[in-house]
Write a sequence for this structure.
């Protein structure tokens, strides 16, 4: 009698263990009190100074009593988490998003249109510096933005007898690179790995947009063939590659590889995110560098369009308290909250009324801010369909051309095909 | 078909060798010392002795599987100390057969020929010949794991003789077989010897095998040769106490005794019993001018007589083993056990006497049966 | 009485129940799900995916990048297997030889095993630094004039796959070496002695004794290596992420990229099913061979 009881208990214990392990990871359910809690899936909190983001959110709680529960996940995982969350109904109420994900998220049912919510909650839409629309409806807005100025290592340039401010055009840039490589330094870092096509945006297209280039027409369709500025940018980069001005290994470099090289003083030029500026100010105090606007095509005199990345925010379809969520978003764009975030993290405000105090930031950061204000924001991938596929495909064709594998027409046709395949599906 | 000569062969195991080979016990350093032996062509020599006496090591040195530390080895008058095993034209049968498990019996036997690039038809002919000699023709297509112990042993022998080597070495080939099979194989090896003309060097720890198989036997102990003689010689005239006790089963009995010289006659005295040695023995001892001394007296169990009356040694029967035609009595005498063989040849009366435990019995022996050893154990007659 | 009999018959099933439940939950269910996804359109990212029959398989089979990936995978797998076995044989023999002292062999064994104890990311970071244009490899090769400060390894479309394969060889051989070593030590030295007397040189010994004796182990290793190498992901992804231009995008990377970078989960599932079938076939052969060994 005793033996079999012992056996049964042991078996039950094992089964219980097995079940508990498979049940791990289940999210807690929302509390059904009068107290409303909104869940916010994002990657911002981990990238801000400790506790800053939660503090800002708590400001909203103080005002309205609505609690904000933060779900943190790295940027690389967030899109997948949102999509799968939308498919199985576990998605958070408020979602952090990149502009490039918008179309995919909307198709996946992860975002709800905001226009009606604006009206219902009497939100002044001039608050937002940019609004991401897809198929005519607004889905998300950038809270804060990061631009990618051209960082210049002053020590290397001084050794080559070049003054950073003198580099204004692409020709200036090529001449500078010639002198730099002649002295044995690495000139320009390009993270051209196709695993993460950021290198297309922040370097190649940054230069393209700075010289006024445009990929999409007013209907949002892509045009590569016959795009003069695109051809000029292709040739510019082909020259950079063939003359050895791009640091070797660029085909498999990712952003951290390039910024690490620059931070250790081996690289003359690179395009870091402005968040790197603050990091270098503290971690590499010996690094003597400055930021300048992207060199433009010779003869271009109009305003430059500046490439940027951002932290956007939207509301999910599943949210049961959409009005409260909208109020939270409004709060995040209020002068105080938005400025606090921009200041604390060291990025530019996405709210038109926000005036962050950057006096605490490094000199270079402030310079970057000036460059930002002098230009016009442009990131043509925002709200593009399957932006990741498009960017990877375009980058591949760009690389084939600059490496001399295909001619101009083939490369342009390749880019066009990538976009057509997606848009004409 | 060759002579083998070992001159002052010795083997010392270095520490490295011991570390590399776990079979070598830690204490074994001087495995073989000053081994001298001339083996005639077609002679069957048996190296025999207890475990660890160096017999296998000597064999392996002849084979070339162990390095010779000191001394010279000649096969057919050619010094082969540094020659590779495969060039010495010898063959070896291992205790564990060492058959190649993934090859059939045919391939196992053919292997040495194949390595020497013998043409296929010749290989087939010779393998089948050997298989017939050893009566394993029906197993040629089988793999070793499907054979019994005796069959495997025959395959191993086949593989060794197919090459018609100069010297055939056998390292305790029958030790892994059961008693009945062993007897059978022993007879087969004797028969084999007639069929193949080659020099045999055979190693065993079993003195019965040594006695029945060898033309000459080499008794070894602790790396040293104790005696080289024909089996009969070793039995009748053991060189020392060790050989005396090793050869012959059951073993010889030993008594502490006194040797008395009276003129040219010698007497041995054990307690009350006083025996005059046989004439040839006296003659040998006198020729060597052996004096009276304390000795160890050795007498074989079959030479001891029981209950004959007269001056006898007394003992108590502890165990009596009924062996069929004789009874082996284990008699307690002083602190020793004396083994006595009593022929009873079918007579119930004769042997029923000796069945009772604790029965007292008297025993004695003649002068021809005595072997006298000095204080160091050496045979005084030698 | 009947109750007891029932209990007794049920006992074995209860004992294996925890493992079976775990396996069903963590192994069978995801596999079945993935197979399901491959027959739907945009599974996982759409709220109501539609079944599309074989469409995803069609798309995968007509994707030139997929076939490039297959070619690269075949190269990667075959070279890895052959390399692993050859290295294993060489190193195992080195560790088993009587030519060196035991102490030397023990130290050597520790050194030879080292690559195996590092995790994939550590190995990647280490070799990335090693092979970067300003890294140690170029420095060393510079002495014999084979490379300069600017020679690219991972960025070079033509040799990136070779470099990645080499690193995979380096990081994986210890397991096979240990297995072969165990096999070697199980071969009775009598066989070698007998062969030496029969007239075999060391090479012939290796061919006629060592290799046949090792055959079952080698066969198992080849099959295991095949399945494991097919599934290699972490090392290659962290080294090159499939670049440059898909030059090192072996099948597992192709699936990962399609799923998690392009969010085409259905396509990726279809490709994954191909991989599942290939691994499954090899697994069947492997299990069969293991049974055969047991019978022996």
């Amino acid at each position: 009698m005793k033996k079999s009881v012992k056996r049964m208990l042991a078996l039950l214990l094992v089964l219980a263990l097995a079940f508990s392990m498979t049940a791990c990871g289940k999210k807690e359910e929302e509390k059904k009190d009068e107290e409303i809690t909104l869940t916010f899936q994002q990657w911002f909190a981990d990238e801000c100074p400790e506790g800053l983001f939660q503090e800002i959110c708590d400001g909203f709680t103080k005002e309205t009593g609505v609690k904000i529960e933060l779900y943190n996940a790295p940027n690389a995982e967030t899109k997948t988490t949102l999509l799968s969350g939308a498919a199985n109904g576990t998605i958070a109420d408020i979602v952090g998003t990149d502009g490039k994900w918008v179309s995919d998220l909307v198709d996946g049912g992860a975002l709800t249109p905001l226009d009606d919510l604006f009206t219902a909650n009497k939100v002044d839409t001039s608050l937002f510096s940019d609004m991401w629309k897809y198929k005519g409806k607004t889905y998300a807005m950038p809270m804060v933005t990061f631009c990618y100025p051209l960082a210049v290592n002053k020590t290397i340039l001084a050794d080559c007898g070049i003054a950073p401010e003198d580099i204004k055009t692409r020709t200036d840039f090529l001449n500078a690179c010639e002198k730099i490589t002649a002295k044995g330094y690495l000139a320009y870092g390009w993270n051209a790995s196709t695993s993460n096509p950021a290198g297309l945006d922040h370097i190649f297209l940054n230069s393209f947009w700075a010289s006024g280039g445009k990929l999409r027409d007013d209907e949002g369709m892509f045009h590569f063939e016959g795009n003069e500025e695109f051809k000029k940018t292709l040739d510019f980069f082909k020259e950079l590659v063939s003359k050895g001005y791009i640091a070797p290994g660029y085909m498999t470099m990712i952003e951290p590889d390039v910024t690490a090289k620059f931070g250790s003083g081996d690289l003359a030029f690179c395009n870091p995110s402005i968040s790197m500026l603050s990091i270098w100010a503290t971690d590499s105090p010996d690094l003597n560098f400055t930021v300048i606007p992207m060199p433009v095509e010779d003869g271009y005199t109009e305003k430059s369009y500046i490439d940027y990345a951002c932290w956007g925010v939207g509301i999910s379809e599943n949210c049961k308290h959409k009005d409260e969520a909208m109020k939270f978003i409004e709060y995040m764009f209020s002068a105080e909250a938005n400025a606090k975030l921009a200041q604390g993290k060291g990025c530019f405000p996405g709210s038109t009324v926000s005036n962050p105090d950057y006096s605490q930031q490094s000199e270079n950061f402030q310079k970057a801010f000036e460059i930002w204000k002098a230009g016009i924001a442009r990131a043509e991938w925002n709200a593009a369909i399957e932006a990741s596929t498009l960017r990877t495909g375009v980058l591949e064709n760009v690389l084939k051309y600059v490496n001399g594998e295909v001619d101009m027409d083939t490369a342009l046709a390749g880019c066009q095909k990538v976009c057509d395949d997606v848009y004409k599906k | 078909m060759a002579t083998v000569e070992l001159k002052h062969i010795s083997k010392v195991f270095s520490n490295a060798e011991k570390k590399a080979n776990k079979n070598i016990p830690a204490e074994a350093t001087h495995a073989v010392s000053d081994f001298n032996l001339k083996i005639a062509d077609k002679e069957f020599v048996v190296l025999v002795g207890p475990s660890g006496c160096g017999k296998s090591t000597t064999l392996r040195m002849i084979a070339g599987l162990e390095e010779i530390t000191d001394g010279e080895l000649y096969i057919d008058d050619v010094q082969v100390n540094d020659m590779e095993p495969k060039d010495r034209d010898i063959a070896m049968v291992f205790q564990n057969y060492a058959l190649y498990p993934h090859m059939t019996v045919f391939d196992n036997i053919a292997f040495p020929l194949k390595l020497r690039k013998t043409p296929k038809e010749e290989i087939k002919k010779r393998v089948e010949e050997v298989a017939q000699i050893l009566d394993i023709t029906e197993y040629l297509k089988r793999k070793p794991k499907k054979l019994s112990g005796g069959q495997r042993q025959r395959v191993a022998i086949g593989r060794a003789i197919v090459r018609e080597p100069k010297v055939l070495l056998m390292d305790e080939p029958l030790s892994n077989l059961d008693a009945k099979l062993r007897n059978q194989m022993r007879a087969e090896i004797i028969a084999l010897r007639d069929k193949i003309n080659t020099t045999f060097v055979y190693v065993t720890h079993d003195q019965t095998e040594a006695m029945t198989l060898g033309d000459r036997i080499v008794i070894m102990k602790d790396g040293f040769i104790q005696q080289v003689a024909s089996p009969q010689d070793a039995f009748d005239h053991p060189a020392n106490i060790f050989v005396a006790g090793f050869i012959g089963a059951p073993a010889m009995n030993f008594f502490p005794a006194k040797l008395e010289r009276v003129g040219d006659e010698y007497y041995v005295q054990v307690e009350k019993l006083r025996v005059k040695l046989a004439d040839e023995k006296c003659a040998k001892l006198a020729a060597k001018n052996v004096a009276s001394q304390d000795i160890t007296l050795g007498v074989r169990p079959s030479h001891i007589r029981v209950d004959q009356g007269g001056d006898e040694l007394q003992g108590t029967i502890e165990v009596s083993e009924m062996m069929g035609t004789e009874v082996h009595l284990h008699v307690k005498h002083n602190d020793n056990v004396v083994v006595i063989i009593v022929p009873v040849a079918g007579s119930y009366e004769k042997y029923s006497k000796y069945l009772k435990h604790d029965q007292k019995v008297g025993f004695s022996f003649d002068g021809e049966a005595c072997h006298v050893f000095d204080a160091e154990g050496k045979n005084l007659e030698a | 009485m009947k109750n007891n009999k029932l209990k007794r018959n049920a006992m074995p099933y209860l004992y294996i129940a925890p493992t079976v439940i775990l396996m069903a939950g963590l192994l069978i269910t995801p596999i079945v799900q993935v197979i399901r996804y491959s027959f739907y359109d945009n599974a996982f990212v759409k709220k109501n995916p539609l079944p599309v029959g074989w469409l995803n398989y069609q798309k995968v089979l007509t994707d030139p990048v997929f076939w490039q990936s297959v070619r690269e995978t075949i190269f990667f797998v075959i070279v890895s297997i052959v390399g692993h076995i050859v290295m294993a044989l060489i190193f195992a023999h080195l560790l088993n030889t009587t030519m060196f002292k035991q102490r030397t062999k023990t130290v050597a064994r520790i050194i030879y095993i080292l690559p195996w104890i590092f995790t994939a990311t550590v190995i990647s970071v280490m070799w990335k630094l090693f092979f970067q244009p300003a890294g140690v490899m170029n420095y060393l090769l510079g002495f014999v004039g084979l490379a300069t400060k600017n020679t690219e390894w991972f960025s070079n479309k033509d040799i990136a796959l070779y470099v990645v394969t080499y690193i995979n060889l380096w990081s994986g051989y210890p397991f096979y070496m240990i297995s072969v070593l165990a096999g070697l030590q199980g071969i009775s030295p009598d066989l070698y002695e007998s062969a030496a007397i029969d007239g075999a040189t060391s090479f012939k010994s290796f061919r006629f004794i060592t290799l046949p004796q090792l055959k079952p182990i080698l066969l198992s290793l080849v099959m295991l290596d095949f399945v494991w190498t097919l599934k290699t992901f972490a090392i290659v992804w962290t080294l090159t992420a499939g670049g440059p231009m898909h030059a090192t995008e072996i099948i597992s990377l192709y699936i990962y990229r399609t799923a998690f970078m392009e969010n085409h989960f259905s396509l990726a599932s279809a490709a994954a099913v191909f991989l599942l079938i290939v691994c499954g076939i090899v697994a069947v052969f492997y299990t069969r061979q293991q049974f055969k060994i047991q019978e022996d």
